[in-house]
Amino acid sequence: MEHITYLVGPGEWICTLADLQSWFRCKFQHQAVSILNQLEKQNCITYSMLEKNKVVKFKITDWQKDNTFLEYNCPCKKDTGFFFFPIARVHEFISMGKCSEMDILLDMWIHAIYNDPSVQGSYSAPVVYYRNHTGNPLTSFQTLGDRWSHSKATVSRILKKFEENNLITLISFKGKHGSMIYLNYYLSVMFDISDVMIDKEEIAMQLQLPIHVPENKEDFCVSESVTEEQITVSEKDSCVSESHMRFIIQKVAELLKTQGIPCCECPKTQYILSPLSACNSELNQYTLTIICPYGNKAYQFELTVHPQDVPAIPIPSGVTDRALEGGE
Question: 16: helix, coil or strand?
Answer without folding.
Answer: strand
